[in-house]
């Protein structure tokens, strides 16, 4: 099987980006392409093939995404080569470079998010986030049975929805270039209630944003994350007071931590980490 995948000499490529899931590289001899190498657990053939096929399927829905070209090898790892969007900046980078535009970028993510959430999904190819969540609840050993029962009841009451979800809906995964916007990092694309995506954004902006590593990855300060969420919530709800929206987003943020186990089995340290935040969010949003 490896015979069919080109071997890439990484020393000929220059790193230009790094996110929570991996690194990106460019090569001057191939100026229209970008190489993405995932972190170890996401660089298996199965994971990279899934990412490749998902990107192709999302493009087929008519959504703006960089065109995927091929799967390659980098050492023992698998990686992808896709269209390089030149002069691109993520919303995170724009917020960093031009902090006065943070609220503007939040409203843009809201606008593009609503367009995404209104797009009918290919339910033959993509999976239901609700079904993924129910599976994850049953397998989340870092959550006690009592909390799992409450969260399961919450998920079972979520309305059925067959419209698109990004799966990693946050400031780093919408990029701009020459007046156009593109979605990237699509490997957790699914269909379901928009609050699944919004809960993830809340988690990034209002929970994980206190971590220095998260601030470094997103190129944003803690204050900017808070400003971003406030502007997003106001734009999404059309209300100055979005406290009720925040509470619902907080419940989905708690659920989002659990859903992660559907994609990547957590390590022992991660189970401790996830368990701590589930307890914290559960107390605030389910019991508070």
Topology:
Layout: E1 14-18, E2 22-26, E3 33-38, H1 45-60, E4 68-74, E5 77-83, E6 89-90, H2 91-97, H3 102-117, H4 129-139, H5 145-156, E7 164-165, E8 174-177, E9 180-183, E10 190-191, H6 195-207, H7 212-218, H8 222-237, H9 243-263, H10 268-286
Antiparallel strand pairs: 1-2, 2-3, 3-5, 4-5, 6-8, 7-10, 8-9
Helix pairs in contact: 2-3, 3-8, 4-5, 4-9, 6-8, 6-9, 9-10
> Which overall shape is indicated by the principal axes computed on the Cα atoms?
globular
Distance between the termini: 53 Å
Estimate the mean pLDDT confidence. 95
How do the strands of the widest beta sheet line up side by side? Answer: 1-2-3-5-4
How would you characterize this protein structure?
- About 50% of the residues lie in helices and about 15% in strands.
- It is an alpha+beta fold.
- It folds into 2 domains: about 1-85, Phosphorylase Kinase, domain 1 (2-Layer Sandwich), CATH 3.30.200; about 90-285, Aminoglycoside phosphotransferase (APH), C-terminal lobe (Aminoglycoside 3'-phosphotransferase, Chain: A, domain 2, Alpha-Beta Complex).
- It has a 5-stranded antiparallel beta sheet, with helices on one face. It has a 3-stranded antiparallel beta sheet with strand order 6-8-9. Strands 7-10 form a two-stranded antiparallel ribbon.
